[in-house]
Design brief:
Elements lengths: L33 H11 L7 H8 L1 H13 L8 E6 L5 E5 L2 H21 L13 H15 L8 E7 L2 H4 L2 H15 L5 H13 L6 E3 L29 H10 L1 H11 L3 E5 L2 E6 L2 H16 L5 E10 L4 E3 L2 E4 L2 E4 L1 H15 L8 H18 L5 H9 L9 E4 L4 E4 L5 H15 L9
Parallel strand pairs: 1-4
Antiparallel strand pairs: 1-2, 3-6, 3-7, 5-6, 8-9, 9-10, 11-12
Helix pairs in contact: 1-3, 1-4, 4-9, 7-8, 10-11, 12-13
């Protein structure tokens, strides 16, 4: 079967064997093709394999993608049930995990949205962008300090600020209007009206009203009201955990980024989600910017955290997105170190008996994520102490690679090698009868 770019069946090719096929369903010139949904599905499943929701979808993914396409083009699609839970690391927060089906829809939007956002973002906006992230943000701040201080020979001051309850303070109708303007200005494909409708449908959804809680009610105790969708107020808040939430939370601060750079004109500026830094040679000018920053954020319904404000000479060191930056030195923050050891100790308590290879791969991935971050800091001794805390029961299955750089699953316990062994053993059991002469 050959489907053209409009999602219509093409009967004029040599693979059709001159047979007549029913094409009425696909012959309506819909602006969104089925291939668009399939592409979003393949993009979505890259980093979310073997979850319950994903496996249920993949059992009959052709049928599921077709149904999803039909719902979108008929504008009957509505987001389904999410899973809500509480995480404690790096800090206590509420997370909503959308179903795999809804994640496909968000990726469908993101594939069109990301190129537009990249064209309007400043270069020093670090979160949820390819080639950037926390480590890139910390290294950029270190380079900015070195540049502004003229290679540490002149004075400069660094301020690090944070928003209070950022995700839950976002006014959804305002965000929807901003995104509509973005589509109108930068997107001119035939499916624009459909994508605008789909984006607004996702943003206006209230997952807290139809979710399944995967953590006990007591886990929500102690969570500030301005950090939960259940208590932040009507028409407010984006669910932490959704791909589209991350992208558009970044976008709602885009005009703020341009305001700081174009109107306040600091010597350096950068932002990761709701954490941002400002670097100036003159401390007085830097402090004079803070009231203007508060006023600009208030126009978006956002406020600065009253206690999370840091302003010091660069020589004192500055903490930003998990790193502590000092002159020619790059350390891990205490919070990052404590989170790493807490994660390892929790995993040590969960070691299954007998060993589950899926759990082992998850252990390897989570530990190596911390080690990958540590390798870029002056943290050799921390890496050594960290790996020495791996439970002895795991030594049979893992070894330490490089110079305390990663954990590696021993070859005989890798799933691929086990499957090869099983296939080889089955071949030996097959009895091959000698060929009888004719």
């Amino acid at each position: 079967m050959i489907i053209n770019s409009n999602g219509n069946l093409n009967n004029n090719n040599r693979y059709n064997s001159n047979r007549t096929r029913a094409v009425a369903e696909f012959d309506n010139n819909t602006p969104l093709s089925r291939e668009d949904v399939w592409l979003a599905y393949y993009d979505c499943r890259k980093n979310i394999r073997n979850t319950e929701s994903q496996l249920e979808f993949e059992v009959n993914y052709e049928f599921e993608c077709l149904n999803l396409w039909r719902e979108i083009i008929s504008r009957t699609y509505r987001p389904g049930e999410s899973t809500a839970f509480i995480v404690e690391i790096p800090c206590k927060r509420e997370v909503f995990a959308a179903s795999f089906r809804d994640r496909v829809v968000q990726h469908l939007i993101s594939l069109r949205l990301v190129p537009i956002l990249e064209s309007v973002f400043i270069s020093n906006s670090f979160n949820n962008r390819v080639g950037k992230g926390t480590l890139f943000g910390a290294k950029t701040l270190a380079a900015d300090i070195k540049r502004v201080s003229n290679n540490y020979t002149e004075d400069c001051y660094v301020a690090v600020l944070d928003h209070s309850g950022f995700f839950m303070s976002i006014h959804k109708p305002t965000l929807c209007d901003l995104v509509d303007e973005l589509w109108d200005e930068h997107y001119h494909e035939p499916d624009k009206d459909l994508i605008k409708w789909l984006t607004r449908t996702v943003l206006e959804d209230c997952p807290e009203k139809h979710c399944r809680r995967n953590s006990s009610q007591s886990r929500w105790e102690g969570l500030s009201p301005n950090k939960s969708l259940f208590t932040c107020g009507e028409d407010k808040g984006l669910p932490i955990g959704n791909n589209l939430s991350q992208l558009l939370a970044n976008y709602i601060l885009n005009d703020f980024d341009h305001y700081v750079l174009d109107e306040l004109c600091p010597d350096a500026y950068g932002r990761y989600v709701d954490d941002f830094y400002v670097v100036c040679r003159d401390k007085g000018r830097l402090l004079a910017m803070v009231p203007k920053i508060r006023e600009k954020l208030a126009s978006r319904g956002l406020i600065l955290h009253p206690r999370k404000f840091y302003c010091q000479h660069y020589s004192k060191g500055v903490k930003f997105v998990g790193s502590v930056i000092k002159k020619d030195r790059f350390y891990l923050s205490n919070r990052t170190v404590n989170n790493a050891f807490h994660t390892l100790r929790s995993l040590n308590e969960e070691i299954p008996e007998p060993m589950d290879l899926l759990w082992l791969e998850n252990f390897q991935g989570r530990i190596n994520a911390y080690l990958g971050f540590m390798r870029h800091h002056d943290a050799y001794n921390i890496r050594q102490r960290f790996l020495e805390e791996i439970d002895e029961r795991l030594h049979e299955y893992l070894y330490i690679g490089g110079d305390y750089e990663r954990v590696v699953i021993r070859k005989k316990y890798r799933r691929r090698e086990l499957m090869r062994g099983i296939i080889a053993s089955k071949k030996k059991l097959v009895k091959i009868e000698p060929r009888k002469p004719l």
